Amino acid sequence: MRTKICLFILLLLPSLAAAAPSVKGSTGNIDTPSADVLRPGQVAIGYYNLDGEKSTVGTISAGKDIEVSTAYTADRQKDNFTKVNIKYAVAQEGVFSPGVAVGVEDIGDRSECTAYVVASKSLPQGIRLHVGDGNGTYDGVFFAIEKKLVPLSVGGVFPDSSLIVENNGHHMNYGLRMSLSPGLKMTTGWREGDPFIVFSYNYY
Q1: What are phi and psi of 113, to 5 degrees?
Q2: Does the pTM exceed 0.90?
Q3: Mean pLDDT, range 131-141, rounded to an integer
Q4: Cβ 95 vs Cβ 9: under 8 Å
């Protein structure tokens, strides 16, 4: 009985080892952020190969409950630009309570400065739900659903993998995120109707 309770609690807690930077740089899904932030001393980098666009992202912990991230975007049809973001975890996710974070993307307004609030919660059956609201690029409510494919796999170690379905406020995106080795993840799928692939690495 005690073992079952422990397993249930573990399944309801987030796996930050499996977290990865989004296209915009903040820890999250494909386009959308989660309520997660990197822990002190952690660093994450990623490279997105998008349709007609490439994005290099980096995220660092700037102290307890705070992360700062950047995204350098090279577009064949537009000027290249760098976004700087900041996110603060207002509340950490618990067994029965969601994590909550607030953030600002593109502080320098190189593309479109955006403020948001987002909540994340792990649910039974390996599901994790993210719901947020923001202005700018989100223009209202956004959400993402993660479904862990191997429920008892260890976070951040192969074959740990999840399906991601999200709405960034305008478009539906779909992805598969898989841990290739500790810290190294690959995410591939469709973003705004076009294929993409990203490799990211978290340093602990």
Answers
A1: -65, 130
A2: no
A3: 96
A4: yes
- List pLDDT tens digits, range 92-115: 999 999 999 999 999 999 889 999
Residue given tokens 């987030």 in the structure block = 14
108 CB-side CA count, 13 A: 9
Distance CA 26, CA 158 (A): 23
Tokens of 14: 């987030």
CA atoms within 13 A on the CB side of 132: 35
CATH of 2-203, one of 3.40.50.1980, 1.25.40.10, 2.60.120.10, 2.40.160.40: 2.40.160.40
> What's the pLDDT at 7?
39
Question: Which helix (H) or strand (E) element contains residue 103?
Answer: strand 99-105
